[in-house]
Amino acid sequence: MKISRRNFIGSAVATAAAAPAIFNTPAHAELAIDDIDWGMGFPEGSTLLNRNENPIGPSVKAIEAAKMSIEKSFRYADRILIKKLLSEHHDIDEDHIMVGTGSGEILNLVSVAFLRKENANMVATWESYRPIPGYAEKMGAKVKWVNLKAEDNYEYDVGRLLGAVDDNTRALFMVTPNNPTGTVLSFEDMNRLLDGLPDQVTLIVDGAYADFQEDGKDGIDLIKAGHKNILVTRTFSKIYAMAGLRCGYGIAHPNIAKEISRYGCSPTSTNMAGFAAMAASIGDMDHVNKSRRFVSNARGYYKKEFAELGISVLAGPPIFILAETGANTNQIRDELRKQKIFVRAGEEWGMPNHMRVSYGLDHENEIFIKALKEILAT
Ligand SMILES: Cc1ncc(COP(=O)(O)O)c(C=O)c1O
Predict the structure, then answer these.
(1) From ligand 1's centre to the CA of 212, what distance in Å?
(2) pLDDT over 50 at 2, yes or no
């Protein structure tokens, strides 16, 4: 029987209401509570504001569907359904869609698919998410780094990006909204960037945080308009708060989708719980809006608190804020760590005077701000 999304979610919720047997056994309950380190290696009582996780958690629908799926997990998940749902959601043909183990899988495959040629290089931004160009380097490709500048308020400069492209460039990787600066490349500038690229270069637009933007056209509209050398990725890790389920997807012209899929995004790349949670989440605007409201409230709180401290911030659409905490940023980070409060110091993005704070729940944000004020007062 072909499973429709409505049937799937309906039966998922019904089954979860009855609680699948596996969750009722005392042995399992003990294991879940006592033996598993749900702090993921961080000390008990930690305040984790360091990994851009969305603390509101997955929707009830996603949770119930994932729970139900465990009993079906002796089977491989049916990625075809996910492609169909994504195709309807984005109004684009299924042959344009790749489903990955997180968007990271697809982004890494860019290097495997396009950068193995001799002397091939990728153009990427230094003050940005580095694992993807880092993977390109590990694959033996050269990365040509472009800087964001304080005097431009860390906005992308299309001219500078294009200026780094040469005859050996095969991919230009960018993140919008950017991590960690939150800066956004406008649709007009993305268009300009794409128009300026030679045919042999694929523009890779990492949209891990794109769903936090309320509206506006993006790279997917350029693909729909017929552009053949752009790949856009999205993830369920952030807006849908499903980082641990490892679900992401990419959209591109079928030539790119086919090439990437030669090396990964295979029919078995998607885990069953992720499959179920994705099926229950695609287009769930209630949860999307809940995440957006969460971010907007947290952003408002941090902007006010940092302003009172005289600390300037970059606060874009995503789930974090970048604060200019100054030359002592590493020491402040270390002092916070002693209190089991974890944030990221900007040195890893070439911004040593900045600190990235992922938004937590209200009480976590308050713990951080209270501790920061005390540290700054000493
Ligand atoms: C900019 C950016 N791209 C990609 C990823 C990876 O996302 P996924 O969980 O979909 O692999 C992250 C994760 O933090 C990210 O910040």
Answers:
(1) 14
(2) no
